[in-house]
Amino acid sequence: MAFIKLYRKKLQENYKFLDNLFKERNIEWGVVTKLLCGNTIYLKEIIALGVTEMHDSRISNLKKIKKLNPEIQTVYIKPPSKRNIESIVKYADVSFNTEIYTIQMLSEEAKRQGKVHGVMIMIEMGDLREGVLGEELLNFYEQVFSLPHIEITGIGTNLNCLSGVMPTQDKLIQLSLYKQLIEAKFNVKIPWVSGGTSVAIPLMLKNARPMAVNHFRIGEALFFGKDLFTNDTIVGLHNDVFKLYAEIIEITEKSNSPIGELGENVAGNTYEVDENVDLSETSLRAILDFGLLDMQPQYLNSDDETITIIDSSSDMTVIDISNSKKKYKVGDVVTFKLQYMGALYLLNSDYIEKVVE
Q1: Which positions are catalytic?
Q2: What domains appear along the chain, each with residue ranges and CATH number?
Q3: Is the separation of the CB atoms in 90 and 107 below 8 Å?
Q4: DSSP SS3 for 336
Q5: Do the bridges between strand 333-338 and strand 242-255 make them parallel or antiparallel, or are there none, so unpaired?
Q6: pLDDT digit string, tens, across residues 43-88
Q7: What are the DSSP calls for 174-224, one per residue?
Q8: Which H or E run includes 243?
Q9: Would you put residue 150 in left (φ > 0), alpha (ψ -120 to 50) or beta?
Q10: Dihedral angle, C-alpha 171, 175, 177, 180, nearest 10 °
């Protein structure tokens, strides 16, 4: 059975690098754990790092975190839905919010539970996902900052998550100005100005981050070390904290082109035969023990660069090993580095074993 492996030492080294990076700049940060899909084995590994703040977009995952360590500050990183208000107040210390009506419900529920619930007001800054419009922010804040059992812990924004808008120095300066406007008008202090996710790290490394931006939410950089501006690996970080291991269950020399009348395959795709291709050409094909139920093959990068991924069906993936110098045999294991979405698919699959080295 295929399995995904987390390399503990690489995770520890990535965490130490990032923690030092943020501490040197007096920045608070939390680990975004939504990639782990609530897997208890891996959540324990994150907690063991000494993390004090964990972010997730699934209440069930925050519930697991609180069960493992009630002292960790949990943050729900999307606007709450009405039906989940009770659970969010119970398991999330802080939630991201953009609707006055929702914060009023959180206030009422926090009163019932005898708690003070933290709220991060998210601001729309061009990526067109969640966020209060900038011109409406002061009016919004005025209506929610005095609600009972609610504490405004900060303001923040999400960039690059939907439309691909990148965080620039100008964007973060604008976010900092919103903090100044609120503090001046209402005579309050905004603890956090949350400048974004892993995508904003390159700005920080160039010392282009405004000093008012004092909070980050980090997932992809921790697990993949990726510079999202250049798609390279950030110097000092590992890009292979996770790897996929898949077993070869068949090796056969087969035609390069399908034979017979063609229709849609299981994924709804239709294979087109190139009329210029020699139908007698063959390749050495291997079948691996995972498929579309587990992940999308475009998010895999084989450690053996001579391997070509041909395609996947629901439970199997076919690769071309014709050019490999390795003499693969049935039962051998092929390893893959993972892109973020690849790891997300695999970690969400009940059919992929999760292990730690």
Answers
A1: 34
A2: 7-224 (3.20.20.10), 242-356 (2.40.37.10)
A3: no
A4: strand
A5: antiparallel
A6: 999 999 999 999 999 999 999 999 999 999 999 999 999 999 999 9
A7: HHHHHHHHHHHHHT----EEEEESGGGHHHHHTT-S-TT--EEEESHHHHH
A8: strand 242-255
A9: beta
A10: -170
